[in-house]
Amino acid sequence: MKKNKGKANTTSEKEFVFEFRAGKHNCVLKVPLQFPVQENISDLHGRLMLLHKIPCYIEKDLKTSLSSFVEKETILDYDREAELALQRLTTGDVDINQLTNAWTRSYVETTLEHARPEEPSWDEDFADVYHELIHSPASDTLLNLEHNYFVSISELISERDMELKKLQERQASEMDKVMHELGNTLSDHDVNAVASQHFDAQQVLENKWASELKQVTGIQKHEYQQWVISLHQDMQKSNNSSQITEEIKVQPSQLLEVADSGARMFEEQPLLEESFTIHLGAQLKTMHNLRLVRADVLDFCKHRRHGSGGAKLRRLQTALSLYSSSLCGLVLLVDNRVNSYSGIKREFATVAKECTDFHFPFLEAQLDEVQQVLLYARAQRSSKQKEQPEIPRNGGDDKSKNVERNPSNILPGEFYISRHSNLSEVHAVFHLCVDDNVRSGNITARDPAIMGLRNILKVCCTHDVTTVTVPLLLVHDMSEEMTIPWCLKRAELVFKCVKGFMMEMASWDGGISRTVQFLVPNISEEMFYQLSNMLPQIFRVSSTLTLTSKH
Amino acid sequence: MRPLKDAQLGAFTFFASALPHDVCGSNGLPLTPNSIKILGRFQILKTVTHPRLCQYVDISRGKHERLIVVAEHFESSLSDFPKQGKKASTEKVLQVAYEVLEGLEFMNKHGMVHRALSAHNVLMDCKGNVKLAKFGLYHMTDHGADVDFPIGYPSYLAPEVIAQGSFHLSDSSHDEAPLPSGSKTDVWSLGVLLFELCAGRRLLQNIEISERLKFILTLGCMDDIVTVLAEEHGCLDAIKELPENVLELLTKCLTFLPSKRPTPAELLRDPVFDGVSCLYTPFKKPVSLFSSSLRCAHLELPEDISDLCKDDDEDYLSERAINEVYHLWCLAGGDLEKELTNKGIIQSKPPICTLANFVLEDGESFGQRRDRSFLLDDTTVTLSLCQLGNIEGCSREAYYPLLEDEQSSLPQSNSSNELSTTVRLPLIIRERDTEYQLIRIILFDRLLKAYPYKKNLVWKEARVDIPPLVRGLVWAALLGIEGDIQAKYESTDKDTPIPTDRQIEVDIPRCHQYDELLSSPQGHIKFRRVLKAWVVSHPDLVYWQGLDSLCAPFLYLNFNNEALAYACMSAFIPKYLYNFFLKDNSHVIQEYLTVFSQMIAFHDPELSNHLNEIGFIPDLYAIPWFLTMFTRKSFFFILTM
Fold first, then answer.
1. Per-domain residue ranges for chain A?
2. Which residues of chain A are within 8 Å of residue B33 when distances are taken between CB atoms?
3. For residue B293, is pLDDT > 70?
4. pTM of this prediction exceeds 0.90
């Protein structure tokens, strides 16, 4: 649209004059023409012939003179514009340095020939190596190694939990004793002293464990990466790698035994789950899969500690697709601070720490990076707004105040993304910021949370996230005010909005088939079936139809 | 299209720029992706055929707004000259200049400007003749507006192009895109190119881009640009030795002010080419199938007919048209994206590594590392035609079937047994069989060349099947289109507003918009013109909703030939939908519906009874079926019948 504005300034009207003789009459044809000429010359010619009833014997003359007129005037226009631009340079209206720098930038930023050479990136090299290995016979070994590391971490964690528990018990009994003596030999002051001593002791222990865990995971990550690289080198060296594959194959069976020794301690909780295949689009239909699941959001992240066969397969699946173009994403609803101190964020961080991430930075490091980027984005935005203050934004005042108060907080509808290789079914987590509004009943399709969902789906589109899990009710746990009508209303809204966004997505990516999982928290079975009945009313569920051709 | 001959097929790829976040079109519908706009504008390039231009063959869309363009390609280009450190001879310089200008003049006639003229875009065929490559890039990207990268190469940019600025997304100070360039910018680029040929070295090679551009701009203050350039590059002697006419040509090309610089057409008729121009015959456009002039008017047979068979090398495939060869290559399993990936032109990073860190509410993302694989690499990759090896077994008779022999419809070939079994296979398999398609395409091509004389044979063969590549023309032949359709179409007034405009305007953005061609802006324009032409030229009939669906297949098949689409539609309607588009068409439709319900009753009495019982009369559901000849629901199904 910017272009139209530019063009509009330069349109001009010119008159085409054509003289001819018809019998004894001298006739003159005058046609005003808009420049630059948009329409086809032969069409214009045909129209003139028809409109002015021009005799056919001058048809050819008219055409040649018309086209040469248009050609000449167009060249004149081009010349005038070009010389104006050159003149602006000589008069100094346009700064020559600025101009050439703009050109340089656009060449450097968009063409490979002029771009700065790429600095080698460890991440990407490792990504290539890993992707190759995981699609080779070595994948089993890799997984087992990962699992071993996982087991040792979880042993550490259980040890930590045990020690913490012991400490707490000891402290409780101590406290009991102290309370018993309260008023006799000890004063309030002493009790407080003991309490603060306990707190300190707990802190010290927690910190000790935290640093130990961090150290162990750091070592694991380093070892793992070294091992992967060296394995890859070995494989490349001996192309007839029969020996190595033997080596690889011997190892796992031992490992499996270790892993399976304490297996099947407890059964998984039965999930409620229903799948649908749907068609979107009015004329050309695209097929997608939808799934309605009742589960805890962190179930998609947690590894079953004593893995059964299914858990291992799931793990393989996640590892295989990590560097592929079919990623899995999860939408996590968070508050407006970028950290992992409270609520679902803390729980998620705990899960993310249960297993070492061998590929991406630890969650804290990723969040720090997000915080940096966020500050940069705010600075960028505010400088842009100063430049163009007239841009009206709905509720802009309100928001900008909010931002000014604390620029490091995020706003509802904004989200940050963390990447993980250590979660059971998820590669990317979209941390979508929501406020208390989502708990009330009356949110609309223009709500920031919904717009955030749309942007998440858009990112899914541009970055090949083909499976995405969305909390259907936009909450992670139920509370009293969430009645049955509230749930139904909310589910309908989210279903309809997601349907709209999916149709929009089809125009962005040409309708690649996707899986969208709608996650509901702990609701009654009856409620679940009500929701699963609602879904086919909103989405068109495909029914099988067999067409046979006669050819 | 011209035969392939010694040319090769080349492919190059680029990205269309992404659309801004959260912007809607003026009609409230989502914006058309830039890649579709480019795809629509590309189509006309397929018809720009000239011996000095590389023939464009096809364009295809990939993931994430990627576009891959297929065109005629040659391995050697003018950029090989300065590399070898030798200067071109005077004759060579004049020849190159003249041939490039021929190509440019032809483009200009079609309203196109090259803008990306450079040594490596001037290819040389085996006979040493010039072929301009990438000449359509500036046109298909709407003067560079639909792509992020600038079109053209820094050393070759004309001063006025530099002065008009470059449009860059991250730069908010430029509110408007630069104005489109005129044909004279190419003349400057040609001047630089010729200078390089004469000097035997690259111009402004080792300087930074901004310095290069500044240097070009400062040339405006110089009197004698050629001398200044020569001094700068230390080749004054070589330039001084040049003959008078070459020096004059250089001076004319490298004129700083556009108003004083000649256009390609003017330069072509300049006296400097007096010695060269006589060697060339002006290019005559081959007469199309439907025109008023005689198709054989300029046919010249040699004295001795056997001369024709003399240069009979065994490579019959290279005598086929480029688009046919490409079509067969695709059928034989050619995959553009794979070819480009193999050559390292398409590199992709794992998407998980390029995820953004943070996204604002309006969808703007931050913290995303710029992916190098999205940068422009305009190397052209030669497609290897080795997949087509298996059809080289076809004999000469397969390539030149005899049409007079009424007995066998299929020519005898090595594998004629196989072919006769292929005929009995389902259509969908036949359409993917390379050898079968080759033979059918050749057969139809020859039949169409003999149209209308061979009309009956076209009918007969069309009953077997129609190869998708030639469907547009075969349908026209089946509908009996004849005469100068172009002139008839041009003389129809398609511009003056009429009352039906509003309805057409509403219907077009809802008609088969999942299709790339029909949803492109070019497609909409053509759609509107063909529909209007039909409405205006049939005053006794009116536009009923559904006519758009009926028009769609014809436009789709003849996208570059509106006149033919219009002619086909005009011939189709009286033949199959007679009086359906009367203002009061109720009794015509009633007649159809009655026949239809009787047919149901005859073929499936049970169903008919049931429908009658529940009162589900055909009026409720079948009217659009007949009104649009089923095109609304089954557009592509119709196209494969």
1. 2-110, 123-259, 272-359+412-541
2. 507-508
3. yes
4. no
